[in-house]
């Protein structure tokens, strides 16, 4: 399944990709990218920022392939998801380098609400 996404790293290790293929996902692909976004939020909350970023990126690709490009709401949703990709990548880099709190990226830096 992951081979369908050209931006996937070949070294990315999926641990339980069974959530990608289900009868519900095949019946309604919109449910699938929403599910990926929920998983991304869960990984983010757990501090697994790199994994969260990867899930946001897959959700963005799925959205892009199924959305109506003329619908402003879909375009805004895609931009929102891509901002989460960048934010989680920045957090993963911050965590990896073990930088101090002053160097920590914040949501507002990426156009996300600081909620």
From TrEMBL:
Superkingdom of the source species: Bacteria
Name of the protein in question: Uncharacterized protein
């Amino acid at each position: 399944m992951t081979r369908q996404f050209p931006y996937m790293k070949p070294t990315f290790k999926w641990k339980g990709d069974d959530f990608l293929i289900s009868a519900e996902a095949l019946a309604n692909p919109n449910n699938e990218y929403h599910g990926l976004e929920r998983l991304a939020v869960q990984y983010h909350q757990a501090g697994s920022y790199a994994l969260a970023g990867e899930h946001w990126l897959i959700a963005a690709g799925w959205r892009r392939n199924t959305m109506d490009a003329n619908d402003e709401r879909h375009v805004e949703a895609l931009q929102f998801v891509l901002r989460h990709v960048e934010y989680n990548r920045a957090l993963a880099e911050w965590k990896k380098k073990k930088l101090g709190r002053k160097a920590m990226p914040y949501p507002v830096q990426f156009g996300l609400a600081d909620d």
